[in-house]
Amino acid sequence: KQEVTQIPAALSVPEGENLVLNCSFTDSAIYNLQWFRQDPGKGLTSLLLIQSSQREQTSGRLNASLDKSSGRSTLYIAASQPGDSATYLCAVLYGQNFVFGPGTRLSVLP
Amino acid sequence: EAQVTQNPRYLITVTGKKLTVTCSQNMNHEYMSWYRQDPGLGLRQIYYSMNVEVTDKGDVPEGYKVSRKEKRNFPLILESPSPNQTSLYFCASSPLRDSGNTIYFGEGSWLTVV
């Protein structure tokens, strides 16, 4: 059974810092890995999708990497802003289903 | 506009009174899924469906039913709701045809069972 974990569970940083969120999965037989953002009480918004054949994806200040063999992905956020405060979830497409991690709650302080 | 629509968005109900949360998507997606989200427990899958008339249990199916009679609709049924089903519920869909596809979420349904 695929399990997805995320470290840290919560993170608080001052504005302007670069930061890294971590995601691990137990079975490397995934089709893709995605990072989502969720604001309190809201739905999930897809940020980046990395297909199994890819190593990384970039969008603006966000960069996500994927190392399938080690079962890890990182989300790098450059020059963090208060507007980045949210919960970030990773998910893998495994078999015919999506498996989600528990999320990292990020607070960026002004 | 491509979207996943859930109704109702907010509901307070009493223990034992059957209720249905509807979910509809306009993207012709094969895959649909229901999740519940509780503080400290993350997003937990209730049921999912790979296509019409095909449904499978997720991690927490107890107390819930689903049906997939049409491709666009995937209602979540609580036959006899209990207070421990108070939660934020999300419906989602995906084409799932290849590894480049993402999953789309509805805006969520806040359910309170008293």
- Give the overall shape of chain A, derived from the CA principal axes: globular
> Which parts of chain A are unreliable, with pLDDT below 50 for 5 consecutive residues or more?
none
Nearest-angstrom radius of gyration of chain B? 13 Å
Portion of residues in helices of chain A? under 10%
Number of separate strands of chain B: 11
Could you describe the largest sheet of chain A, including whether it forms a barrel?
6 strands, mixed
Radius of gyration of chain A: 13 Å
What is the terminal-to-terminal distance of chain B?
36 Å
Q: Beta-sheet strand percentage of chain A?
A: over 45%
- Number of helical stretches of at least 4 residues of chain B: 0
Written account of the structure:
- The complex is a heterodimer of chains A (110) and B (114).
- In chain A, the strands form 2 sheets. In chain A, strands 2, 4, 5, 9, 10 and 11 form a 6-stranded mixed beta sheet that branches. Chain A has a 5-stranded antiparallel beta sheet with strand order 1-3-8-7-6, with no helix packed on it.
- Chain A is built from no helices and 11 strands.
- Chain A has strands at residues 4-7, 10-14, 19-25, 30-38, 44-51, 56-59, 62-67, 72-77, 86-94, 97-100, 104-109.
- Chain A is globular and about 40 Å long.
- Chain B has strands at residues 4-7, 10-13, 19-25, 31-38, 42-51, 54-57, 65-66, 76-78, 87-94, 104-105, 109-113.
- With 114 residues, chain B is mainly beta.
In short:
Chain A is an all-beta fold. Chain A is built from no helices and 11 strands.
Describe the secondary-structure layout.
The complex is a heterodimer of chains A (110) and B (114).
Chain A: E1 4-7, E2 10-14, E3 19-25, E4 30-38, E5 44-51, E6 56-59, E7 62-67, E8 72-77, E9 86-94, E10 97-100, E11 104-109
Parallel strand pairs in A: 2-11
Antiparallel strand pairs in A: 1-3, 3-8, 4-5, 4-9, 6-7, 7-8, 9-10, 9-11
Chain B: E1 4-7, E2 10-13, E3 19-25, E4 31-38, E5 42-51, E6 54-57, E7 65-66, E8 76-78, E9 87-94, E10 104-105, E11 109-113
Parallel strand pairs in B: 2-11
Antiparallel strand pairs in B: 1-3, 3-8, 4-5, 4-9, 5-6, 7-8, 9-10, 9-11
